[in-house]
Write a structure and sequence with these properties.
The chain is an alpha/beta fold. The protein has two domains: about 240 residues, 3-Layer(aba) Sandwich (Aspartate Aminotransferase, domain 2); about 120 residues, Aspartate Aminotransferase, domain 1, CATH 3.90.1150. About 35% of the residues lie in helices and about 15% in strands. Helix 4 runs parallel beside helix 5, helix 4 crosses helix 7 and helix 9 packs parallel to helix 12. The radius of gyration is 21 Å and the shape is globular.
Length: about 375
């Protein structure tokens, strides 16, 4: 069989007629920047996340940068986050002018709250937890620490649209939530895109200005800022996809349950197991595997795509050299980086394909 890690074309092909119709309506309207469709999508997204407001921006990275700027986090500030995420989580802090400070993670790949307080100092302005793999971080503990030290919480929800913690959607806990709409994400544009969720009206209005070159009106530029607006065409097709998001999320969770059922008996791998108060959306299904490199090659020979998210932690990247971290600084993150492997989890997978993947993994270890 040939099973790719992702099937980017499949979803869009299934919805081709609806998507092309939505795009055609935008072309007829002549409204290509912001406008009604963007506002409709923003309102729908806010409803999905349980917040008062949502704001469409150019990318998920922009969402993080603009959020930090809206909170006046910049030169001389520090933001606590993790090093096992995509590099944007940390680069947005640096691009806002602040310093990323890394703490280690737990076995769920999310920030370990027990380690956060030791990283706080007078320069600390925010905690930036990442809901990695689509699994919610421990927001009760994080918010308690943030409140005790008067820190802002900015949620990196890039992989976690529709994930819930104690029956509440991610992106609604902190001061601001940041989402990516990249083609690889569970809710995906046909290009780049990002969303910001927020309850505070003043922050919302501030970020409206920040995403639009700093303009508060057509002629008044209040602050230097980039252009980062969600395209109307993308908003129109995302409104189409939004109708199917619950179905796709349920299918990802169903696929995850299949893996958990049939792989949990293997002693050579570790599968993610949710807690009762969590709802993961499985943007990635990450196992920890012995002999990972050989397993990847074996799966490749069998026609199965698998990826590593991410093989080099951010604190060991060349860009982070000046921050002073060394191998051994974050032992759990570093250990996991040598074991983690992402299996195909996209909604279009058939039971036959899932069984084939499971059987191939079992065959590999039985050898």
């Amino acid at each position: 069989m040939n099973i790719p890690y992702v099937d980017l074309a499949g979803q869009n092909t299934l919805l081709k007629k609806e998507i092309l119709s939505a795009i055609n309506n935008v072309l007829k309207s002549g409204q290509f920047i912001l406008g009604d469709k963007v506002k409709d999508f923003e309102d729908s997204f806010a409803g999905l996340c349980g917040t008062k407001y949502a704001l469409g921006v150019g990318t998920g990275t922009d969402a993080l940068i603009l959020s930090l700027r809206a909170l006046d986090i910049g030169e001389g500030s520090e933001v606590i986050t993790v090093a096992n995420s995509f590099v944007s989580t940390a680069s947005c802090i640096a691009l806002a002018g602040a310093k990323p400070v890394f703490v280690d993670v737990g076995e769920d790949y999310n920030i370990n709250p027990a380690l956060v307080e030791n990283a706080i100092n007078p320069r600390t302005k925010a905690i930036l937890p990442v809901h990695l793999t689509g699994r919610p971080a421990d927001m009760t503990a994080i918010l308690k620490i943030a409140k005790a030290h008067n820190l802002a919480v900015v949620e990196d929800c890039a992989q976690a649209v529709c994930a819930e913690y104690k029956n509440k959607p991610v992106g609604s806990f902190g001061a601001i939530g940041c989402f990516s709409l990249h083609p690889l994400k569970n809710l995906s544009a046909c290009g780049d895109g990002g969303m910001i969720t927020v309850n505070d009206e003043n922050l919302y209005k501030k970020m409206q200005i920040l995403r639009n070159n700093g303009f508060s009106s057509r002629n008044d530029c209040d602050v230097w800022s980039p252009n980062s607006r969600l395209d109307t065409v993308q908003a129109a097709l995302l409104l189409v996809k939004l109708k199917y998001l619950k179905e796709w999320t349920d299918k990802r969770r169903e696929n995850a349950s299949f893996y958990q059922k049939y792989l949990s008996g293997l002693t050579q791998i570790k599968v993610p197991i949710e807690q009762p108060y969590e709802k993961s959306v499985y943007h990635t299904f990450v196992i920890q595997a012995e002999n990972r490199e050989k397993l990847i090659e074996y799966l490749k020979e069998k026609g199965i795509g698998a990826k590593i998210h991410y093989p080099i932690p951010i604190h060991l990247q060349p860009a982070a050299k000046k921050l002073g971290y060394k191998p051994g600084s974050l032992p759990v993150t570093e250990r996991q980086s040598k074991l983690i492997l992402s299996l195909p989890i996209y909604p279009g997978l058939s039971k036959k394909e899932l069984k084939y993947i499971v059987n191939c993994i079992c065959d590999f270890y039985q050898q």
